[in-house]
């Protein structure tokens, strides 16, 4: 085995990220980067199809995960600072687990990420990407597990990392590094996605926030649905009162990115079109006799995964954005006209035309009436998915795609001199105004004439 060397990665968000020769965790992380499972993340874009709207948003989950690892190391140093100040013991083993878990947290994402997860959910075969991640890490036939197993002479490191990523209930402060209101994941993606999309909104005062982070206990309710609902106290990240303006801006940045980038109507339209295409392909893939209708052969990674009993880890790891995009190119010649049409539309960016219910006015009652009118007038085409209704997007101050934003440890707390940690909506009028979800309802029309008809009928009762 060669001698450890200091390695460096240049990153547009964090600058120089260094993997030091004399740090065993850094060297483990560097070795993990070269595994096939981690290299696969080069072929999965962080923002899926957002490049159709923001052409420079082509950054990958590979780059994001390295940034999350770098940020996690900083959060661990903050934990050490806070625990020392409080006279509490530092758990070096748990710190190592948290940092490596941060690096590996996205291994289980599928092609086009949450879109693919939604397709599987609609087929009643859903598996959360966190579960896939844990399976990738624990896989005895993979390249990740041997590296993790060798890290602790006594063993157990691999399972400790996977367990942390799967855990619903936090048990210590190290869980907050990978899952909290101020975890390493969102601290990277907020800055990276803003930079790579070129949007002017969503800036955060990162250095000031990191300087003002404190560790305090808060009360949480157990996530176990069979539990008693008892309250427990766990440590998490909170902020000194001096950081209130920066904390407000941090949450506003998340809100803005969700509203303007992640839930952009064109992005959502393309996601719905891809989902419609993949559901149709999956329907053909179940029966060997109908596979040819997709324009793909039975050895294609998509067909193998969608086939009966095909949702194995081996088949899943063959899927990425590149594999699916290549498959869509072949689908353009599919015998099935619906598959061929959708594939051609996606490749040429001939998208369905949209109506946002908000365009009819800001009054909630008016919006509901217009939605009912469209539902009634176009029921047959909605059932046939010639028109797609999208009401799955909503944004609030704690919105997290695919996540649980209602639990206490996922909310942001400010330290009060008398009460201790106080959830920020109880202190900030600005943030309190945005605590209720803002729901988006859009319709995507295969035929532009239907969209125009829906517009012309505005205000008419069906």
TrEMBL record:
InterPro entries documented for this protein: dGTPase-like, HD/PDEase_dom, HD_assoc_2, HD_domain
Keyword Hydrolase attached: yes
GO BP terms in the entry: dGTP catabolic process
Domain HD: 61-190
SMART domains cross-referenced by the UniProt entry: HDc
Domain of life assignment: Bacteria
Coiled coil regions in record: none
GO molecular function annotations of the record: dGTPase activity
KW Nucleotidyltransferase (keyword) present: no
UniProt-listed Pfam families: HD, HD_assoc_2
PROSITE patterns: HD
Keywords linked to the UniProt accession: Hydrolase
Protein name stated in the entry: Metal dependent phosphohydrolase
Organism (species): Humitalea rosea
């Amino acid at each position: 085995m060669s001698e450890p060397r200091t390695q460096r990665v240049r990153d547009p968000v964090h600058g120089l990220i260094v993997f030091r020769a004399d740090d065993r965790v850094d060297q483990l992380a560097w070795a993990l980067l070269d595994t096939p499972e981690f290299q696969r993340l080069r072929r999965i874009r962080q923002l899926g199809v957002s490049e159709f709207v923001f052409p420079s948003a082509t950054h990958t989950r590979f780059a994001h995960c390295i940034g999350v690892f770098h940020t996690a190391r900083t959060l661990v140093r903050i934990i050490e600072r806070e625990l020392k100040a409080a006279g509490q013991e530092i758990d070096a083993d748990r710190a190592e687990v948290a940092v490596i878990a941060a690096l590996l947290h996205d291994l289980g994402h599928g092609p086009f990420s949450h879109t693919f997860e939604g397709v599987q959910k609609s087929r009643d075969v859903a598996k959360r990407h966190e579960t896939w991640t844990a399976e990738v890490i624990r896989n005895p036939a993979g390249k990740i597990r041997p590296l993790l197993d060798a890290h602790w002479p006594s063993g157990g490191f691999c399972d400790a990392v996977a367990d942390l990523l799967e855990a619903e209930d936090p048990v210590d402060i190290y869980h907050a590094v990978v899952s909290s209101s101020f975890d390493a994941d969102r601290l990277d993606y907020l800055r990276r996605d803003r930079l790579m999309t070129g949007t002017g909104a969503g800036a955060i005062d990162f250095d000031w926030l990191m300087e003002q982070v404190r560790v305090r206990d808060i009360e949480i309710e157990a996530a176990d649905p069979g539990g008693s609902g008892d309250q427990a106290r766990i440590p998490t990240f909170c902020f000194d009162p001096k950081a209130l303006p920066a904390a407000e801006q941090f949450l506003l940045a998340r809100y803005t990115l969700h509203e303007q980038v992640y839930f952009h109507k064109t992005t959502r339209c393309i996601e719905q079109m891809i989902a419609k295409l993949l559901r149709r392909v999956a329907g053909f893939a179940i029966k060997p006799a109908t596979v040819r209708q997709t324009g793909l052969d039975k050895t294609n990674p998509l067909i193998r995964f969608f086939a009966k009993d095909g949702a194995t880890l081996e088949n899943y790891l063959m899927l990425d954005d590149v594999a699916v995009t290549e498959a869509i190119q072949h689908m353009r010649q599919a015998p099935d006209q619906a598959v061929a049409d959708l594939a051609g539309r996606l490749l040429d960016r001939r998208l369905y035309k949209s109506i946002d219910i908000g365009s009819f006015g800001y009054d909630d009652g008016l919006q509901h009436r217009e939605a009912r009118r469209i539902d009634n007038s176009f029921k047959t085409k909605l059932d046939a998915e010639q028109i797609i209704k999208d009401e799955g997007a909503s944004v609030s101050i704690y919105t997290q795609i695919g996540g649980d934003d209602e639990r206490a440890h996922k909310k942001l707390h400010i330290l009060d001199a008398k009460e201790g940690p106080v959830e920020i909506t109880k202190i900030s009028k600005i943030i309190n105004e945005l605590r209720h979800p803002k729901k988006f309802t859009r319709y995507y029309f295969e035929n532009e004439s239907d969209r125009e008809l829906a517009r012309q009928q505005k205000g008419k009762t069906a």
